[in-house]
Amino acid sequence: MRILVLSKRQYMNRDLIDDRYGRFRELPLALAAAGHEVTGICLSYRFRNEGRLDDIEKNAQVIWHALNVKRLLPWGSKSYWHTINEIGKCFHPDLVWACSDAIHAILGVHIAKKLGASLIIDLYDNFESFSVTRIPGMTSAFRRALRQADGITCVSHPLSRYVHETSSCKCPIEVVENAVPEGIFYPMDRASCRRELGLPQDGLFIGTAGAISKSRGIETLFNAFEILAQERADVHLVLAGSCDKGLTLPKSSRLHNFGMLPPPKVPVVLSALNVSVICNRESEFGKYCFPQKFYEAIACGVPVVAAATGSMLELLKDRPEYLYEPDNVDSLVTVLRRQVTSAVALPLEVPTWTTMGNRLESFFLSCVKN
Q1: Which pLDDT does position 315 carry in this prediction?
Q2: Average pLDDT estimate for 281-286
Q3: Which residues pair with 92 in a beta bridge?
Q4: pLDDT above 70: residue 62
Q5: Percent of the chain, pLDDT > 70?
């Protein structure tokens, strides 16, 4: 099968090409490793170098065409549409996998029709919560695109149900959750990780590696830390990830803020923790996402505390001791008090991108036009 992937270049505060990271890099590679021909167009909404980039890993190769958003204008030999025409002539895709936001879902409809290919739209979040859907008519155009797709892949079961309820789509929907790359996230020696990060060897470290954002309820963690820090002199807070501008961080010598780190450093941060906290809110984003950092922490053997919303609430419904009520500081403090003294890692099997790639392959084969 020949597969054309359409994706934006920057997502989850990473760059698909520069960071070699995330769902829209890993799943196409898994499909290529399974024997399919895969090429993609990654559209940057920021100025970046353009051109063909071959992503090769082990026995898999994905050819990416990197373009900036100005290439959507319909003229010039380097336009987005010229690239689509060339791919149509030379590659003849059987299937278009349109990913990453509402814009790409809408583009996918036109491109799949133009190339005579099947269309699968991927929802790695609730795109209707993204700022682009504030453009008048965008949400209705997005839902119309879903109704025209031959199949839809969703990152979580709550999102799958939401799509069924709101889009009136008749096509099959498959849940393909986020996963972890093989050989990167695994249990590491806590002392060595703390030493590598310059952290004290002694102490109870709670923290998070991901978006440090008000929209994710991060201030609930800040407030919980300040309460625990008054109770215990050995409690530390570790943060790693992009931080909202203007966000007020706790004023404490026991705050360790590493900012954005290269992807290989993330498992080191997680493995230095006693408890990893997955912050979220009961929002149009939080109810439908699947936090990748949850599986990353579990793969590292690190105990986890998560906001009881969306996919976390479903996945941990039989383990309420690992959940706290979103935006409720007292609830988070209660759960953390218990976990920092008797923390136990969750005995869950963590899927790899290869596993999810196999699921995606089966779904594609069931949807592709003969």
Answers
A1: 93
A2: 94
A3: none
A4: yes
A5: 99
Are 202 and 67 contained in the same domain? no
Q: How far is the CA of 157 from the CAs of 268, 280, 367, in angstroms?
A: 30, 17, 19
Q: What is the CATH number of the domain that holds 40?
A: 3.40.50.2000
Q: In total, how many domains does the chain have?
A: 2
What is the token pair recorded at 169?
A: 């789509």
**pTM, to two decimals:** 0.94
- What is the distance of C-alpha 227 from the center of its chain? 31
Q: 330 and 224: one domain?
A: yes
With 80 as the cut, is the pLDDT of residue 343 above it? no
Q: Rounded to whole angstroms, how far apart are CA atoms 73 and 95?
A: 24
The amino acid occupying position 204 is: L
Kind and range of the H or E run holding 106: helix 102-115
Whole-number pLDDT of residue 347 = 85
64 neighbors 55 (Cβ within 8 angstroms): yes
Question: What whole-number distance in Å separates Cα of residue 28 and Cα of residue 5?
Answer: 8
Query: Strand order of the sheet with strand 255-257?
Result: 255-257, 235-240, 204-209, 275-278, 304-307, 323-324
pLDDT in tens, 93-108: 999 999 999 999 999 9
DSSP state of 77: T
Distance CA 332, CA 277 (A): 9
